[in-house]
Amino acid sequence: MTIKPFDFKLKDGRTATILSPREEDINGVIEYLKISAGETEFILRYPEECDKYTYEAEKALFERKNASEDEAMLLCLVDGKVAGNCGIQFSSQLKLRHRAGVAIALCKEYWNLGIGTRMFEEMEKLALNKPYVQILELDFVEGNTRARALYEKMGFKIIGRRPSAICLKDGTLLDEYMMQKKLSR
């Protein structure tokens, strides 16, 4: 699924663009994936795991997401650089299609500028365009207080916990929390 690109103002006065991924964004996305993976323990990959992201694989991913009716990937560009991405996935299964999964990540340099809020607003619009979708869902890792604050600001509530779901390189085990937001129509 694709969206019409749009611009918005960041808290620091710069202009950002949210758009569906394009082939010309592939190298920037691969670089963003590596950078963001090294900036926090709360992303579910380490930088060395990003070697699997190739130009060809990302191109195929972009094409699949853009052609799909059941999922969308959005990028945020600031000064031509990939600041972050988000995604939403819908289910076609009758018993599950009332739920949609969302995910988001930003490079640290772009935290606290309003990008996360604006991306969530766009994902919610996409969900509201599907009349059967009633709930948005996401997960976050224990200790990620910044993400939790954003999610709660956007109306998500914790509904469960997976104990010891994440194991860091040093052996530290972290819980993963599940959140939901009921959509208002």
What is the topological layout?
Layout: E1 6-9, E2 15-19, H1 26-39, H2 55-67, E3 71-78, E4 81-90, E5 99-106, H3 115-128, E6 135-141, H4 145-153, E7 157-167, E8 173-182
Parallel strand pairs: 5-6
Antiparallel strand pairs: 1-2, 2-3, 3-4, 4-5, 6-8, 7-8
Query: Which runs of at least 5 residues are low in confidence (pLDDT < 50)?
Result: none
Shape: globular
As a whole number of angstroms, the C-alpha radius of gyration is 16 Å
CA(first)-CA(last) distance: 21 Å
Q: What average pLDDT do the residues reach? A: 97
| Order of H and E elements | EEHHEEEHEHEE
What is the domain tally?
A: 1
Strand arrangement, major sheet: 1-2-3-4-5-6-8-7
The CATH architecture designation is: 3-Layer(aba) Sandwich
- Helix-residue proportion: 25-40%
Query: What structural class do helix, strand and pairing data support?
Result: alpha+beta
What percentage of amino acids are in beta strands? 25-35%
CATH class division:
Alpha Beta
Quaternary organisation of the protein chains: single chain
Q: What's the tally of helices?
A: 4
CATH topology: Aminopeptidase
The CATH superfamily turns out to be: Gcn5-related N-acetyltransferase (GNAT)
Protein name: Protein N-acetyltransferase, RimJ/RimL family
Keywords: Transferase
Pfam families: Acetyltransf_1
GO molecular function, one term: acyltransferase activity, transferring groups other than amino-acyl groups
